[in-house]
Amino acid sequence: MNREPVVQVEGLVKQFGEFVAVDHISFHVEKGEIFGFLGSNGAGKSTTIRVLCGLLAPTEGRALVGGLDVALYPERVRQGIGYMSQKFSLYNELSVQENIDFFAGIYSVPRSNRERRKQDVLERMGLISKRDVPTHLLAGGWKQRLALACAILHEPGIIFLDEPTSGVDPLARRDFWDLIYELSGEGRTVFVTTHYMDEAEYCHRLALMDEGRIVSLDSPERLKAGFAPDRFLQVDTPRLLSALDCLEAHPGFSEVSIFGSGLRLRVGDLVEGERVVRELLSNQGIEVHQIREVQPTMEDVFISQVEQSSGVRR
Amino acid sequence: MSFRRVRAIARKEFLHILRDRRSLMMALALPALLLILFGYALTLDVDRIPVLVVDHDGSLESRDLVSRFEGSRYFDLLGTVDSLEIVEESIDRGNCLAALVIDRDFASDLGRGRTASVQLILDGSDSNTASIALGYAEAIIARYSAEQMASRSNRIAGGVSAIPVEARARVWYNSELRSKNYIVPGLVAVILMIIAALLTSLTIAREWEMGTMEQLLSTPVRPAELVLGKMSAYFLLGAVDTITAILLGVVIFEVPLRGNLILLAVSCAVFLIGALCWGIFLSASVRSQLLAYQVGLLSSFLPAFLLSGFIFAIKNMPLPVQVATYLVPARYFITVLRGIFLKDVGLLIIGGELFLLFAFAAAVFAFATRKLKGKIA
């Protein structure tokens, strides 16, 4: 991968009155990277994206997009980026095609190129058969595709997607991510925010955000590997709630939670952990079907990182 | 400024206008409706004033005087009655507005060279009509009196002498003094102001409410391009409304259109641009469609109606209000329209007003653009 940073953020702060939405964050994104922002609602993800798109002026710090300072050259920055906002924000009264034509005009796609670009995005998004459908009649997934189509019409080098898949069914989400990979494969940088843990794992690199700060930043694999040498155990038992109470009470176990039909917990050592669990549960007369090791999920990483960081702050 | 972006916005906005059939119908029908409604309802003409006569004299002379009233188009003689009670009742019922009471001694006083008096009773509850009726009645009586004087001196002196002074009035530009000729051009201005401000008052607020403004702001579009594009689309609609209003004024209300049509078109265009930009400015300021619509209605209708000299003469207003009228573009536009319609005046005479209309349009355009620029915080 090319090591050329296309987004550089240094000490970025965005305050709304007293409220600090983004609190001194610094990061950089490389060309062709799929860079994710994972965090709960209100963590500052959207605010950061909106600063990077020149929709909000930073209170402090610097943000370079495509080598240009957003605060100084917002108009030049905007020509080189595509932005898809959290809320669907195309024109419902217009047809698919009319929306695309409008954005082609707005982004000054040259006339000679316009039909080709239009055809290209329609094809790529699978919207050919829907080109004359009024936008308000499209289902959620198709609306997302149209929004993405309008955002990439002018072949931007950087694409900002603010929770692009919220409210879209899982199948459509998967398809949407295929499109994101395609864009990244063409050397475009994709900057995406999400609060779906599974989706976060599709990113090349991931920044975990909490209360305006980046609590952790790395590739999903490395973030998960960050737990080493700790491991995770899955305990299958018919009496979930009693087992949960019993294991949570033990000081040696952290992060015990119900996961599917069983319990998940973090242990320092696999063999020792399994022994203690069996002992504790049999003392309570709780039957255990099976205990096995499982891989940590992004959710495990996120919860543990956020707890750690807020613990440090306290 | 990119022409391509402006055109893209204008096209999109035009599609919005076409898709929203109900609003489109409203926008097209409203000027005609308002013009007809106000055109018929608002009349300042006082003629055919219903009048009763109480002729206690019944002489040749008194009948001569009554016949003068009968012959005037300003009075409508309802008939002759015997008593004042009937007059009183008729005035109370609103059947008549004035009564002419001629004394028993009218003819004999005249014959003896004494001042003969006639009484004129007027319904002052409609003070405007009453004072106009009084003026007309006094003129008739004064003329009658002058003729009597002349004929008497002829009799005595044996010569032929005429009435000493006679006014030969010649009314220019509106020879029949039809108030419609005065009202309709003003009405066109008021209606255009309302329609134009309402048309655009929703356009930016809707983008904020739908969230599309955020998307637009992330593109290279500039505020001036946005304002210009939106304005162009609504300008087409406003132009149709303008032509409708002017044609209706000429066809239905028979207002003479004497002036230069190109000058008329230019003036209307400049005024329309200013009014449309005003709507856009409001829309960008309040960000809510409902509020923008209400503010748009009030801020266009009230000043254009009250402070423009449309009906109420600016000269008669208190000084601070007079000063305020200088900020009302309709004031200049009404002067321009009346000048072009009735007087066929040229650029030399209305150039000043036209310039101020232009300045208003430019200023509001700048305000609207600034307002949009300021939205990126």
How would you sum up this structure in a few lines?
Chain A is of the alpha/beta class and about 325 residues long. Chain A is built from eleven helices and 14 strands. Chain A is elongated.
- Main interface: chain pair and counts: A-B, 31 and 26 residues
User: Might you state the CATH topology name of the largest domain in chain A?
Assistant: Rossmann fold
Low-confidence stretches of chain A: none
Q: What's the N-to-C terminus distance of chain A? A: 39 Å
Task: Give your account of this protein's structure.
The complex is a heterodimer of chains A (314) and B (377). By secondary structure, chain A is of the alpha/beta class. Chain A has helices at 45-52, 74-79, 96-106, 111-124, 140-152, 170-185, 197-200, 220-225, 240-248, 270-283, 298-313; strands spanning 5-16, 19-30, 34-39, 60-65, 68-69, 81-84, 158-162, 189-194, 205-210, 213-218, 231-236, 254-259, 262-267, 290-294. Chain A has 2 domains: 5-225, 3-Layer(aba) Sandwich (Rossmann fold), CATH 3.40.50.300; 231-295, Alpha-Beta Plaits. In chain A, strands 6-7-8-3-9-10 form a 6-stranded mixed beta sheet, with helices on both faces. In chain A, strands 2-1-4-5 form a 4-stranded antiparallel beta sheet. Chain B has 2 domains: 3-43 and 178-376, no CATH class; 49-157, abc type-2 transporter like fold. Chain B has a 4-stranded mixed beta sheet, with helices on both faces. In chain B, strand 1, helix 3 (60-71) and strand 2 form a beta-alpha-beta unit. Classes of the chains: A alpha/beta (314), B alpha/beta (377). The interface between A and B is medium-sized, with 31 and 26 residues.
